[in-house]
Structure formats: C-alpha cells, structure tokens
Amino acid sequence: MWELGDMFKFILYADAILLKMGITCWSDEECIKILKKCKDAIPSKEKGGKVIIIDMVLMDRNLEKGDDKSYETQLFFDMLMMVHVFGKERNQQDWAKLISGAGFSDYNIIPILGLRSIIEVFP
Ligand SMILES: C[S@@+](CC[C@H](N)C(=O)[O-])C[C@H]1O[C@@H](n2cnc3c(N)ncnc32)[C@H](O)[C@@H]1O
C-alpha cells in the first residue's frame, strides 16, 4: 500500500525534513528506522541539515505542578497510541534515545505548541 512515498523505504533529499505527528504511532525500532532514513536524506549539521519533529513530549509531572489537565490529556494520548497502534507518547529521555539511536548528534526541544513541542534534530 505504501510503496510510493513510504518513509520506511525512501525519503526525498531536502535541507530539512518536517515530521508532524508522523512517528509517535510507531514502535521505538520503527521510529529509529524512520529517523535513520531522514538522516540519510539531509545534509550535514554544518551545511544546515536538520529534522524538525512536531509531536508530544510527555511532561515530567513533578515539574509541571498545577497542570494536571495537560498531564492527564497526554496520558490519554499515550493510552490511545497503545490501544490503536504500536506507538506511545514519549518523554524527553525517550526522545533522546530514539534520536541518538538513529545516529543524530544533537537535539533541541522547544515546548511552545501547547501539549506539543518542536524538536529540532541535528545530524
Ligand atoms: C497521525 S497522521 C499525521 C498527519 C499530518 N502530518 C498531521 O499532522 O495532521 C500520520 C500520517 O503518516 C502517514 N503514514 C503512515 N505510514 C506511512 C509511511 N509508511 N510512509 C509515509 N507516510 C505514512 C499517514 O498517512 C498519516 O497521514
């Protein structure tokens, strides 16, 4: 079904790749496969290559005092991912493991989109 445009097989070369809610529904192994394909498709960090992920970064509840509703919503999304697909919502450490597992050197999380964040990932 996903022969053409299948991100597991090939990603078009670009200076930057945007993955919006595009990998949260996959297992860790699958996410690493996708991120490796992205890394193959972008130039080096020095030449401006990057992957931009827009997705949820689960909050650390202790750090987010007084924001129980947001925390609960994130946990419901986590449950949704587990019930319907093989994915899960991930905290900062989980994202770091995927990013380094795919061979990227650095990342930067910018939490400016409500429950979602921008994650800049550098080769
Ligand atoms: C959760 S949706 C996000 C859609 C959109 N980016 C957004 O934020 O509204 C995940 C998307 O991944 C696409 N997708 C699933 N498997 C794929 C694959 N193997 N290669 C490329 N895209 C795929 C689906 O068609 C779907 O559009």
TrEMBL record:
Species of origin: Solanum lycopersicum
Name listed for the protein in its UniProt record: O-methyltransferase C-terminal domain-containing protein
Signal peptide range in chain numbering: none
Gene Ontology molecular function: any one: O-methyltransferase activity
Domain O-methyltransferase C-terminal, chain residue ranges per copy: 5-105
Claim: S-adenosyl-L-methionine is one of the keywords in the record: yes
Any one Gene Ontology BP term: methylation
Pfam families attached to this UniProt entry: Methyltransf_2
